[in-house]
Amino acid sequence: METVIAFIIIFGSLVFFHELGHFLFAKKAGIMVREFAIGFGPKILALRKNETLYTIRLLPLGGYVRMAGEDFDTVELQPGYRVGLIINNEDEVEKIYLNQEVSNPNVLFIETERADLSKGLFIEGYDEDGNLVKYNVSRNAVIYEKGQETIIAPYDRQFDSKPLGSRAMAIFAGPLFNFILAFFIFLAIGLLHGIPTNEPIISEVISNSPAYSAGMEAGDFVKEVDGVPVETWTGFTDIVKSSGGEKIQLKVERGGDLVTFTVTPDTVENEAGQKVGQIGVMYDPPLEKNPLKAFTFGAEQTYTWTKRIFELLGMLVTGKFTIEALSGPVGIYKATEEVAQFGVFSLMNWAAVLSINLGIMNLLPLPALDGGRLLFFLFEGLRGKPVDKQKEGMVHFVGIMLLMVLMLVVTWNDIQRFFF
């Protein structure tokens, strides 16, 4: 149950902040947001505030922000429609009833001749006496159809009415907020847990390793390698890795004295297939709490993990990883279960890495993802006009189908890996 709660909190937070980015920048651009949803499928909870419906849905596999003007969002009144209207004190239509019985005696029924609920904001038609009448429609008018309420979206509140830069930013803001979230999680870890000092102090020497054979011990503070001063653990390991298996001379501080060792590193192959040196020592750095360093730590960790994930993507593209190495929700759940055993700060670190991963995945130029939509905006900028909506919609639809197939394959691989 603890793993389930941790998974829901982590995954829910990543989705929430991603959609919050879309939401805030859409609002900033003046776009009407019809729904802010966490999850997919049937609604579990729903709350309407002003023009936006906030929902939590059954399947916790993502979320969405539904903006006015997208996905056939607008309502069109065709000639011959019989509609019920309620007129306000300013002689504007404030309520429109479609396809439902209305008992309100103040409702005026007309047979629509012409209507524009987007740009012109008017309805023209014949009343019950056969007279042709025309009414202006309020910008905040509500349409009632089969028990559902829809606030009309004047064209200047629709997604497509906004400049290219505003639309692109509303889409880019989702992945951007995932990187921002990761930074603040790393910052919180630095403030609450502390920051590794990165001093080259050996915490453990592995048995039967080159360092063990040379006589090195836990607590040794590395000062020099081949006469070159060493100040950080990273600098020390970089020299060892690049040694090529050749002998190196280490000068360490032990109990206030300087001791010199000659070590011949083993040569091993890293994840990228490169040959590197290794002497068999472990590092468990002391921690310090410093607000300024915590800020730097947050930025450095965000950059480091972003770079690392891009490197892994490159390995996937070049065939060094196969699709079997990918994980879906089941794999993430199992990894969360393992990470949870090491405490809350490990979970926080895991959440930050997942947030960066989610941001990067969404920026990939694939149909149906944020990156795919940004790619179409790039085409629009180069062509000077938008790509045909039907063609773009078809590309995104095919992309969604392919992503669904990929998700099924990855999930099946996870199930096979972890349960069989």
Automatic annotation (TrEMBL):
A Pfam short name: Peptidase_M50
Similarity annotation: Belongs to the peptidase M50B family.
Coiled coil: none
Cofactor(s) the protein requires to work: Zn(2+)
Compartments reported by the entry: Membrane
InterPro entries referenced in this protein's UniProt entry, alphabetically: PDZ, PDZ_6, PDZ_sf, Pept_M50_Zn, Peptidase_M50
Major location category of this protein: membrane
Membrane-topology annotation of the record: Multi-pass membrane protein
PANTHER family membership: MEMBRANE METALLOPROTEASE ARASP2, CHLOROPLASTIC-RELATED, REGULATOR OF SIGMA-E PROTEASE RSEP
Keywords for this protein: Hydrolase, Membrane, Metal-binding, Metalloprotease, Protease, Transmembrane, Transmembrane helix, Zinc
EC number(s) reported in the record: 3.4.24.-
UniProt protein name: Zinc metalloprotease
